[in-house]
Design brief:
Elements (H helix, E strand, L loop, with lengths): L2 H12 L6 E14 L11 E14 L4 E15 L5 E16 L5 E19 L2 E2 L6 E13 L3 E10 L11 E11 L1
Antiparallel strand pairs: 1-2, 1-9, 2-3, 3-4, 4-5, 5-6, 5-7, 7-8, 8-9
């Protein structure tokens, strides 16, 4: 079984679905760059895609929720003549969410840790050498739920682990996501 299939299967088994769970399909854009590195020149933002799903488990009379997610995210950066760094990842954030319940419109804040599994890494058209296949990071963001059906979120992901020993840069990503609740 491939590494991707194994990760997806484990995530599906680990998330206990109940009547109170809320499934959200998410899609949007990623605006990615990396921190400075001796191996990489100062770079520009790379525009990519993000798509995935999340589960919401309410507690504390609905003001708090636990939100594990599975997202495919394109990261990296553009480095002028040096080329482009392209990283495709499966991100698994485990988010704690605080809701401000307002009828028909619910703003919320969230944050938490994130495991990042590299699927592909290309630097200037070549495979990244000795890149870390698992990295760790954190997520913080805010969102709005309208009519208990549609969500709009903005989040910042920062990765604490370096790309590799040769590339000491760390990915930084802003995501803008639109969601549909079920």
């Amino acid at each position: 079984m491939s590494r991707i299939a194994t990760l997806v299967l484990l995530a599906a088994v680990a998330l206990p679905l109940s009547a109170d769970a809320q499934l959200t399909l998410k899609a949007g854009g990623s605006f990615a760059s990396t921190t400075d590195s001796e191996g990489l020149p100062e770079g520009d933002t790379r525009l990519g895609a993000a798509v995935g799903l999340g589960f919401g488990f309410q507690f504390g009379e609905g003001k708090f929720a636990l939100h594990p997610e599975l997202l495919y995210v394109q990261k990296g950066g553009k480095f002028g003549d040096a080329g482009t760094l392209r990283i495709d990842e499966l991100d698994f954030p485990l988010l704690i969410q605080f809701n401000v319940p307002i009828k028909l419109f619910t703003p919320y804040l969230y944050g938490g840790p994130q495991a990042e599994f590299e699927l592909k890494c290309m630097a200037a058209g070549d495979d990244c050498v000795n890149s870390e296949s698992v990295r760790w990071g954190a997520v913080a963001g805010l969102g709005f739920r309208v009519f208990e059906l549609v969500t709009l979120e903005g989040r910042y992901n920062w990765t604490f682990s370096e790309l590799s020993e040769e590339l000491s840069a760390e990915p930084r990503t802003i995501l803008v996501l639109l969601g549909l609740d079920f």
